[in-house]
Amino acid sequence: xxxxxxxxxxxxxxxxxxxxxxxxxxxxxxxxxxxxxxxxxxxxxxxxxxxxxxxxxxxxxxxxxxxxxxxxxxxxxxxxxxxxxxxxxxxxxxxxxxxxxxxxxxxxxxxxxxxxxxxxxxxxxxxxxxxxxxxxxxxxxxxxxxxxxxxxxxxxxxxxxxxxxxxxxxxxxxxxxxxxxxxxxxxxxxxxxxxxxxxxxxxxxxxxxxxxxxxxxxxxxxxxxxxxxxxxxxxxxxxxxxxxxxxxxxxxxxxxxxxxxxxxxxxxxxxxxxxxxxxxxxxxxxxxxxxxxxxxxxxxxxxxxxxxxxxxxxxxxxxxxxxxxxxxxxxxxxxxxxxxxxxxxxxxxxxxxxxxxxxxxxxxxxxxxxxxxxxxxxxxxxxxxxxxxxxxxxxxxxxxxxxxxxxxxxxxxxxxxxxxxxxxxxxxxxxxxxxxxxxxxxxxxxxxxxxxxxxxxxxxxxxxxxxxxx
Length: 470
Fold this sequence. Notes:
Blueprint: H1 2-40, H2 43-54, H3 62-77, E1 82-94, E2 100-106, E3 109-113, E4 115-117, E5 129-136, H4 139-150, E6 154-157, H5 168-173, H6 177-187, E7 193-197, E8 225-228, H7 230-242, E9 247-251, E10 255-269, E11 274-284, H8 294-313, E12 320-327, H9 335-346, E13 350-356, E14 364-370, H10 373-380, H11 383-386, E15 393-396, E16 412-418, H12 423-426, H13 439-459, H14 462-469
Parallel strand pairs: 5-6, 6-7, 7-8, 11-12, 11-13, 13-16, 14-15
Antiparallel strand pairs: 1-10, 2-3, 2-9, 4-8, 5-9, 10-12, 14-16
Helix pairs in contact: 1-13, 2-8, 8-13
């Protein structure tokens, strides 16, 4: 009995010592990653070039192609094992001349307002479109008013983002349907156009674009769609209470073209133990055209590139193959994400983990995970390692749009979660520019992503361990 007690004591001491050693090794590696990112980071310089020298990168444009070539060149400079371009056909939509709009309360009495065409919208007639306006909050209002009151008018969707929701992406999700499906629904009642309140929690004069869809609406019945700034949305709503029969005029010359070829940009470090099992980290290289796409999603792309650079700079030799994937066409089609997943399935590649950064370059707060309880419990055990960096948010939930198509019941999907309170001030608007990104916050995000990738690579995922035993 005494010998058994001594043996158990020694075993406990040995296990504790091993645990402390592992914890110390991990703490040291995370410290190294943050040190390199903050003292000798590359992400901010990459973003400066993407934003200031190339600019907005709407899929199918010359700027998007330049971004592909630039990031391919920069990844090659890192000395990765493989860098390649994955072809993908993408939609091409152009905005044309700057949009113009005004509110007319009486003949010769008008006020100019700030609008922009929604991505994928039809143009107005060459001379513009002028009609009375009916204000609604949702699709139920359309049904309540019916064709009798809507036909021949412009539908004004004025449902704001819910300001008391701390999770701003939840607020965004609660009203983005009016932007995406608003034209499709209004056309059913004979509307001639739509104006949508910008998806923005701040009061300003920037209209915010974004993807919209006509669904199966016949081409002849498709109506033009634009977004209006939050300040001007409030002005239009107030004006309607005083003058219900006012007229709204807008003109836009956007156009949809034939699909064109573009590319996902991929770089890889081969795994030393499991070269045929893959961990990926990425963001989307395309952006809308109003600003230069610094937050959405230039930040996510350069942070993802930085992950591989940080692992190499700290001389870490990954067990699994680690890829950075810069996806093309997230904004208006998700073609890049779908193509990558389809090719991975075709090649029977085993992906165990995917991390996406597509929520801006603000201060990182943590991650959300799309995974089972067993894997989440393991990941939660790493929270103390992130505490010194004020990273505390580890929640089960969504991940990212581009990595979503990889979901297969075993892969762990994750999304970087920065502080989101200011994100929708810039999202899809002309003020999403390089000056809105803080260098330190951007670099902290890259180091945080690299830290999680390191831990996943070192310890694996639960179903991977089970498969290895079987």
